[in-house]
Design goal:
heterodimer; A: about 325 residues; mainly alpha; MetI-like fold; 15 helices; B: about 325 residues; alpha/beta; Rossmann fold; eight-stranded mixed beta sheet; four-stranded antiparallel beta sheet; 12 strands; about 30% helix; globular
Chain lengths: ~325, ~325
């Protein structure tokens, strides 16, 4: 199958999934008890004011009309007004998303760069010292809560040693780089703003490491176990029987086959992290999607909740699509099948 | 067939160290393969045939396996004394191996051509272009239809028989003087089995290479081999030319194996079997390993391990009471 057909088919298949997601989130956020109009005008406002506010927000319309109105807006690319701050949700998301994207991307990059070589090393040196050390570190990673790591890292590297900056995306004294993407690293590179680049990179280190540790642990173990599995297969024995050096056996013949499960994990992690880095974003005062979503839920800000959900859903689907395409590159049977 | 010895395995011991105990997969095996000879290595599953081949190539999975003793002389050199790098340069060039499962023996993510060219380039130090030409020639020689197209294919796009042809082409591409073939036809359809065996035999004869053909099928041995060694529970119990062994098997186990072959001319519809089961490899019986199942066994058999006895010009048997005639 041609790659273009494959990709466009997958894109078309996304439409019903998205529709389903909008219906589900719409219904869910409406069955949650609580009155957004009351929240908006405050506890002390008179019932008259609350009633007017309900009307203004369209909360008195039947549910299906409310949904239909929402969907019509959605098709125009309008996610509605946030009940909380009276700003378009799209605008809020456009501000929050790059921060989360940057953090997630750097975090997963660190993860992949460390996990793949470490996974290979621990598989090849199974039950040697490296393997044992990595196993203990991985166990620590999956069993220690993220907020604990976050606080510990801040305490040591920011508070005690002063090596790295504290919360936020960039030093207060440094103006954010000019640019349109909102990704500070990319923007500062494009505008050759080295000061902003240095500051935003330093700000990224702690939250990125904190966020990736769990995934680093999982991914290292995953690469290790799939490597061990592949190294036991017949074609690896053939490669060895053909006299290939161990380097070629591991990196050429085993690694490509062992990476398939890892690619799945990376893809899913990306979707999970981009909206789910709530604890990390809170501890490091990172102005990302995770903290925005928590605020929206606490405020029963329906348009914002739905906007976030749709965005995260889109990212999940995009990540899955990329994973599928990556399968095609890694495994010819997917490409030709 | 030359008279010169190509491969000589002397008193080989390969053990596997497991939690259940030490598995003595090979416990004193002697073999010899002459130049240009096809030696069949016969025995039940688990008797150590494949481990023998892997020991020769130095590919016993370690841990848990280890070659614990003996000598493997190949063209006069002791393979057990070689460094890993020296063994790598022998594997695939002077000794090649083909395996039982062609479907899983090639890397699924690389094209057939890439895998063949990789091996040829490695051992012959030639350019990719000339390696490709040699790969094409080899595919031609194994009578592969449309070799050019096959080079660009992935393993899953070929049938088992075709893949085994590729394996043979790959194994012979660097002109090895010894080919280890581990049940090369067991996983194939019966009709394809004969084709592959004949093909292998032709190509081997043309190159004057020798083969150690591992199989459990005596029919294959009779059809293909010059000589045969019979293994039982990690030991070689009898060896000799195909003719003398089939005419007068001297070991009770060999005789038992022959009687197990279904014979349509026999009146009774029942198949003969050897009573008992293969011994536990962790705690093998003392003395002759076959004695618990042997109808001739005496007290001697359960105490003393039989030494090889010559019963014909090249016919050797390890039995206290070899069969006559």
């Amino acid at each position: 199958m041609n790659m273009l057909t494959f990709v466009s088919r997958r894109l078309v298949a996304m439409v019903p999934v998205l529709l389903g997601v909008t219906i589900l989130t719409f219904l869910l956020s409406h069955v949650i008890p609580g009155d957004p109009a009351r929240l908006l005008v405050g506890q002390k406002a008179s019932d008259e004011v609350v009633k007017r506010m309900r009307e203004e927000l369209g909360l008195n319309d039947p549910l299906h009309i409310q949904y239909w109105n929402y969907l019509k807006q959605l098709l125009r690319g309008d996610l509605g007004m946030s009940i909380r701050n009276r700003r378009p949700v799209v605008q809020d998301l456009a501000e929050r998303f790059p921060a989360s994207f940057e953090l997630t991307f750097v975090s997963l990059l660190i993860c992949v760069i460390i996990a793949i070589p470490l996974g290979i090393l621990t598989a090849v040196r199974r039950n040697h010292v490296v393997d044992h050390v990595a196993r203990v570190l991985a166990l620590l990673g999956v069993s220690t809560p993220v907020f604990w790591w976050g606080l510990l890292l801040l305490l040591i590297f920011y508070f005690r040693l002063g090596w790295l900056p504290g919360p936020g995306r960039i030093d207060l004294a440094v103006p954010p780089p000019a640019g349109h993407t909102g990704l500070y690293i990319l923007d500062s590179l494009l505008s050759r703003d080295w000061r902003a680049l240095g500051s935003s990179l330093r700000h990224l280190v702690l939250p990125a490491f904190c966020l990736c540790y769990v995934y680093l642990a999982v991914m290292t173990r995953m690469v290790r176990s799939s490597m061990l599995e592949v190294l036991n297969l017949d074609y690896i024995r053939t490669a060895r029987a053909n006299g290939l050096p161990e380097r070629a056996v591991i990196f050429r013949h085993a690694l490509g086959n062992a990476l398939v499960p890892t690619v799945t994990i990376v893809g899913l992690s990306f979707g999970e992290l981009i909206g789910g880095a709530i604890l990390t974003e809170t501890i490091f005062a990172w102005p990302g999607l995770g903290s925005y979503m928590v605020d929206s839920v606490l405020f029963l800000d329906f348009p914002a909740i739905m906007g976030c959900t749709i965005l995260v859903c889109l990212i999940y689907m995009a990540a899955n699509l990329i994973v599928d395409i990556a399968y095609g590159f890694l495994d010819p049977q997917v490409r030709w099948g | 067939m030359g008279e010169k010895l190509l491969l000589q395995v002397e008193n080989l011991h390969t053990y596997f160290y497991t939690l259940q105990g030490v598995i003595k997969a090979i416990d004193g095996v002697n073999l010899c393969v002459r130049e240009g000879e096809i030696l069949g290595l016969v025995g039940e599953s688990g008797c150590g045939k494949s481990v023998t081949a892997l020991s020769i190539l130095g590919l016993v999975p370690s841990p848990p396996g280890r070659v614990e003793g003996g000598r493997i002389l190949f063209e006069g050199e002791d393979l057990l004394a070689k460094t890993p790098a020296e063994m790598r340069s022998i594997r695939g060039s002077r000794i090649a191996m083909i395996f039982q499962e062609p479907m899983s023996s090639l890397n699924p993510v690389f094209r057939i051509g890439d895998q063949m060219i990789e091996v040829i380039k490695l051992h012959k130090k030639v350019s990719t272009g000339s390696a490709r030409i040699q790969a094409l020639e080899m595919l031609h020689e194994v009578r592969m239809p449309d070799p050019e197209a096959v080079l660009a294919k992935y393993p899953f796009q070929l049938s088992g028989g075709m893949l085994q042809r590729v394996m043979i082409a790959m194994a012979l591409s660097c002109e090895p003087s010894l080919l280890l073939a581990d049940e090369p036809t067991t996983a194939l359809d019966v009709t394809v089995q004969a084709q592959i065996l004949n093909l292998m035999k032709d190509l081997i004869r043309k190159r004057n290479a020798a083969v150690l053909l591992i199989t459990h099928a005596l029919g294959v041995v009779a059809q293909t081999c010059d000589a045969v060694s019979v293994m039982y529970a990690g030991t070689a119990v009898e060896s000799g030319s195909v003719e003398s062994i089939f005419r007068s098997p001297a070991h009770p186990y060999t005789r038992g194996l022959m009687e197990c072959i279904p014979d349509p001319s026999r009146k009774s519809g029942k198949l003969k079997i050897i009573p008992g089961t293969v011994p536990d490899p962790v705690n093998p019986p003392p003395g002759c390993r076959f004695h618990p199942r042997c109808y001739k066994a005496t007290a001697t058999c359960s105490q003393i391990r039989p030494d090889p006895v010559r019963v014909g010009p090249d016919h050797v048997v390890c039995c206290h009471y070899p069969e006559e005639g």
